[in-house]
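Q: Hi! New to this. If I give you a protein sequence and the SMILES for adenosine-5'-triphosphate, can you show me the bound structure?
A: Yes, paste them in.
Q: Okay, here:
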Amino acid sequence: MVATTATASRPEGAAHRPRRAPAATRRSGFYANLRPQLYRLIESESVDPVRNPYAPGAGQRPPELAGRDRELKQFEVVLERVARGRPERSMIITGLRGVGKTVLLNAFRSMAIQRLWGTGKIEARPDQSIRRPVASALHMAVRELAPRHRAPDRIEAFLGVLKAFAQAGEEPSGRGAAGRSKARAHRWQPGIDVPATRGRADSGDLEIDLTELFVDAASVATDVGAGIALFVDEMQDVPADDVSALCAACHELSQSGGPLIVVGAGLPHLPAVLSASKSYSERLFRYARIDRLDRASADVALLAPAEREEVTFTEDALDALYGAADGYPYFVQAYAKVVWDVAPDTPITADDIKVAAPEAESELAVGFFGSRYERATPAERDYMRAMAGLGDDPVSTAAVADELGRKPSSLSPARDGLIKKGLIYSAERGMVAFTVPHFGKFLRAQLN
Ligand SMILES: Nc1ncnc2c1ncn2[C@@H]1O[C@H](COP(=O)(O)OP(=O)(O)OP(=O)(O)O)[C@@H](O)[C@H]1O
Ligand SMILES: [Mg+2]
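A: Thanks. Here is the predicted structure of the protein with adenosine-5'-triphosphate bound:
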């Protein structure tokens, strides 16, 4: 609150004007006495840390979604075409870690909600079937549509099928682990008090069940003149059998023209994962690869939120920030957040960036790079260090083996482990690359 008062008194327009006492301070003896301590505390009267708009963090909504207009427009077309029953391919967003896939997926979801679609979202995990998460997500989507449905019994019928679908993945009852998992399964039914239906979406074969469930969900959406969008984040982690079932269900739906779409996001090798599972997947999805922001978009990401707080950056500061963050959205947010906190005044200058850079880098080293590095085993770390030694482009697995003086086959477990942990990916046979931008640079700096 105190800091907000100080911000409100920012001298209009001019940079580096001598600091003035806040209006309230001038009027009140009480605040006047506090003033010296407050200034020492907040160090700035114009770039107020309390109002720092930047948001580095996984899936954190950025203060300004910059440079994604093309993808947003594409998705608008998808929604519109599906709503009109036109044949349409759904969208899959791919990209490196921290480029803004989750944020974009969430923006897509908001667009669907605005059109009164039912929506649900899952985050795939390796080795976890999507059956239960998809059931929860569709439950949520249909709950959003239900109040507008004229025939409550249609909703109830769907919920009965949904419940059967969710329970069909259970192992047979018994003692031990299977018994426990059955107990867990029974705990899944938040708010579904209709009995499970028999004979639909409950065969236990995910491909059949998912197809039937999607068709039924789409028909509920048709009744209310809306659609359903199911969002799948970290889609590369969907287990192979489930990917195949998901593609088959989407395929079936695209033929019947039902208004249900699956929108995915994942690492750059996701298209390869999908086409390995079903050759027709390329015709099911429109892939949008998102990348670093170009200079103009990175500037917008920085300036738009700042200017809403009446703070700006000099051209030199923007140059320096682009140099440091390299246009990667996560880095843009991370640098900007620290710079804002250290800058004494507006406009923020290149000198402020210089002061902030070491702190921003050490925060990234711990939070962005370090947390991921720690997930790797010693053998996997060796593998990544060898990759880093070979440069920043994708490298061949043979070259990594060479670098380590090992046989390529002996390194397969390390490589596969890293792919599973989402630290590296293989977009092309025999080649690997880091999923995390600047990871090679980070590792090389560790070695020095
Ligand atoms: N278009 C954008 N403009 C500005 N900032 C963005 C943009 N997209 C994402 N960000 C910021 O970048 C960071 C990373 O975004 P997000 O978590 O969506 O990335 P991601 O691609 O899902 O990463 P991961 O692969 O690790 O899940 C967040 O702090 C977010 O606020
Ligand atoms: Mg994400």
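A: The first helix runs from residue 2 to 8. Let me know if you'd like me to explain how to read the tokens.
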